[in-house]
């Protein structure tokens, strides 16, 4: 049996869960999410605990077992506490700021890059630390938006400047050898 799939999902008191067949609808203080899962999965909610079982032992069904449970856990966590992804902007002259709800990036292009937040997503900018916090209840949307923002100016390996995830290590390359230090002998 799947190690992740057999773990129960505990539902906080502030979250409502409705299960209709293979469709799960979760509503909480941060928002609401609805998702349709495979009919091969048995999803039950009893005493504020969601359990996921599988109806067969076929390989594709076994592969879906842990995935289904993890997706339900992310839905419950998202509508109750939410998720945050932090990006760091590093480079001379690079900066980020807010224009209403829009995120404005100045990252070395001739024009600022303006990003509209999707529904359920908010940006928080710390201009001193040059960080952008992306907050929301859907972890998939947050992750995709963070990847799209990072793609605007990915970190480069020589100076390390660009947009990167918080805590991301950039493998640095050595530059060209200078003329004065033994080169060209």
From the structure above, extract its key features.
185 residues; alpha+beta; Outer Surface Protein A, domain 3; 2 domains; 4-stranded antiparallel beta sheet; 3-stranded antiparallel beta sheet; 13 strands; elongated
Write the layout of secondary structure elements.
Layout: E1 9-10, E2 16-20, E3 23-28, E4 31-36, E5 41-46, E6 49-54, H1 59-80, E7 83-90, E8 95-99, E9 102-106, E10 113-115, E11 121-126, E12 131-136, H2 139-152, E13 162-165
Polypeptide structure, described:
The protein is of the alpha+beta class and 185 residues long. It has helices at 59-80, 139-152; strands at 9-10, 16-20, 23-28, 31-36, 41-46, 49-54, 83-90, 95-99, 102-106, 113-115, 121-126, 131-136, 162-165. The chain has 2 domains: 9-80, Outer Surface Protein A, domain 3; 83-165, Outer Surface Protein A, domain 3, CATH 3.90.930.12. A hairpin with a 6-residue loop joins strand 9 (102-106) and strand 10. The radius of gyration is 22 Å and the shape is elongated.
């Amino acid at each position: 049996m799947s190690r992740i799939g057999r773990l129960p999902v505990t539902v906080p008191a502030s979250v409502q869960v409705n299960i209709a067949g293979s469709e799960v609808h979760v509503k909480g203080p941060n928002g609401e999410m609805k998702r349709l899962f495979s009919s091969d999965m048995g999803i039950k909610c009893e005493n504020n605990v969601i359990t996921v079982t599988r109806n067969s032992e076929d390989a594709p069904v076994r592969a879906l077992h842990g995935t289904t449970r993890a997706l339900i856990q992310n839905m419950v966590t998202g509508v109750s506490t939410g998720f945050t992804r932090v990006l760091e902007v590093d480079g001379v002259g690079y900066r980020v700021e807010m224009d209403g709800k829009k995120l404005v990036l100045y990252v070395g292009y001739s024009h600022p890059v303006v990003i509209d937040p999707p529904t359920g997503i908010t940006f928080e900018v710390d201009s001193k630390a040059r960080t952008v916090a992306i907050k929301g209840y859907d972890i998939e949307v947050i992750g995709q938006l963070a990847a799209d923002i990072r793609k605007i100016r990915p970190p480069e390996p020589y100076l390390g400047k660009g947009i990167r995830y918080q805590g991301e290590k950039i493998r640095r390359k050595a530059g060209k050898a200078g003329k004065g230090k033994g080169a060209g002998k």
